[in-house]
Amino acid sequence: MENADTAVWAALMENDPDRKVRRVAALRCGDNPAVPPVAILVPGRPAQPILVAPKALPKQRSLRTPEGRAVLIHALTHIEFNAINLALDAVYRFPGLPEAFYQDWLAVAREEALHFQLLREHLRSLGSDYGALPAHDGLWQMAVETAADPLLRMALVPRVLEARGLDVAPGIQARLAQAGDLRAVEILERIHHDELGHVAVGSRWFRYLCASRGLDPEETFFALVNTHFRGRLQGPFQEQARLQAGFSPREMAWLEVRLQEGVRG
Q1: Which neighbouring-strand residues pair with 135?
Q2: Using one digit for the tens of pLDDT, what is the confidence trace for 239-253?
Q3: What is the mean pLDDT of the chain?
Q4: Structural Rg of the chain based on CA atoms
Q5: Which of 19, 54, 84, 182 gets the most CB atoms within 10 Å of its CB?
Q6: Buried residues in 254-263 as b, exposed as e (16+ CB within 10 A)
Q7: Residue 31: is its pLDDT beyond 70?
């Protein structure tokens, strides 16, 4: 049996998706490494899918066909696979935090692994599989860019990238329902429920880290997004979902202003 100091590392660096899921299931609280982490530029992932620039991704097709739905479900499956690595990296990357931090992110990793399995199973039912189509690497690149500071990681990964999933989920579910894919709608409802909790975990530890450093959480969030997020914020926002996941009304108002500035720009 692997000791606690290597179990998270082994799960993070596992290339085979099925073995990665099994390794995540075997992790227990307290399995965060006691040794300083080493730099990880590429986590464990399979040779397929081929990673390309976002503009080179397959074009969306009609969701009325299995092939069209497979393009969408493959993209979502890839997001969930990356989310496993992101959650594991939060455990591995940032030693010296309270035990509850590692408990929270191990729980997130387990749920992301379940989401990946559910989506992959449905993708197979559509005549495809994970790796059959190209994908992009934007989520993991943000992990690399925020590896130096857990405060930056909590601000930009759960509270910017993952929070975007809360915004788009209702629309995707509606389109799949119109196409008659009720199993996909059911899976995405489970994912949406869990992702509310994942963003809330990020919000909770973001506020904890701000408090431990004597920082105002709202002003710090604004400053970190302005300084470190290079993309354009996308909307519209699902305000009630974001409030439930730990955003403040002032943060939502600021995000709306930033969104409109981006649109005008």
Answers
A1: 51
A2: 999 999 999 999 999
A3: 92
A4: 18
A5: 84
A6: bbeebbeeee
A7: no
Residue 85: closest CA among 28, 143, 35, 131: 143
Task: Specify whether the backbone of 217 is left (phi greater than 0), alpha (psi in -120 to 50) or beta.
Answer: alpha
Residues 81 and 120: their CA atoms lie apart, in Å, by 10
CB 196 within 8 A of CB 244: yes
Which residue type, as a one-letter code, is found at position 193?
H
Q: Evaluate if pTM is beyond 0.85.
A: yes
Contact 86, 141 (CB under 8 A): no
CA distances for 176 relative to 91, 191, 205, 215, 234, angstroms = 34, 15, 34, 43, 21
Tokens at 71, concatenated: 């393009």
Which residues face 51 on adjacent strands?
135
Q: How far apart are CA 79 and CA 70, in angstroms?
A: 14
d(CA 185, CA 175) in angstroms, rounded, equals 9
